Amino acid sequence: MNCELSKLAMPEYWAGNLAEAERVSLEVHLSECGECRREAEEMTKLWREIGLIPASETAEPSRELRARFYQSLGAFQAGLEQSKKPAGPSLVEKLKGWWPKQPMIQFATAMAMLVVGVGAGWYARTPAVKQEDNEMARLRTEVGSMKQLVTLSLLQQQSASDRLRGVSWAYRVEQSDTEVLAALLTTVNQDQSVNVRLAAVDALRPFAASPVARKGIVQSLTRQESPMVQAALIDLIVELKEKPARTSLETVSAGESFNPAIRERAKRALSELQ
Q1: What is the Cα–Cα distance from 190 to 269, expressed in whole angstroms?
Q2: Which ranges of the chain have pLDDT less than 50?
Q3: Rounded to 5 degrees, what are φ and ψ at 176?
Q4: What is d(CA 44, CA 40) in angstroms, rounded to the nearest whole number?
Q5: Stated pTM of the model
């Protein structure tokens, strides 16, 4: 007999219902297996202790238990008799007596109550809504200030990669942010990195509705020395259909100091802006 079978046979063993062969096999296993033997001894002790507990049928309820039972029963009967008594007029019945009988007066009363209820609800809700709107407006202002601060700070860093990050942050600010717009125009005109200047030209697109941005783009064209930045500015001018840029485009198309490809590009832009 193994451990699993011995555990299954234990209850029958204690009850004395095991066959002789099974009993002998179980006892042999218990003599050889220390773990099963300890478990059998513990269970035997437990069953002996349970057998010492008095039978529940012989236990009599105490006088205090009887008294509490009859008190609870009396309270229950009193509540039952009270519930059988006729109740007074309900709230609905009272309202029916107050409610006017004529249909027109009923309609007018109902409308008046509706208006009062809606007004009271709106009045109670308005302060909370105003407070929430004020908090949201303050939060948006703080977030906008944070974005502006990060953008301006990065655009002033020594590392070109940090300044490129600043240009990317410029896309996150409001289009009405004049400080970031001024910083981008300064970057287009003065940054030492051509890549940063090109990125700044692209970042000016969201500000295209601003007259300051359009004027700054046109003025930057003749100040540039990099053909790549000049080409980007010309393309942006054509995209924005900025006809006031014709004078600057004519200067570039006729200027001997400009790259021939840029001069040709400026001529095509002039034809597109006609």
Answers
A1: 25
A2: 55-59, 104
A3: -90, 5
A4: 6
A5: 0.52
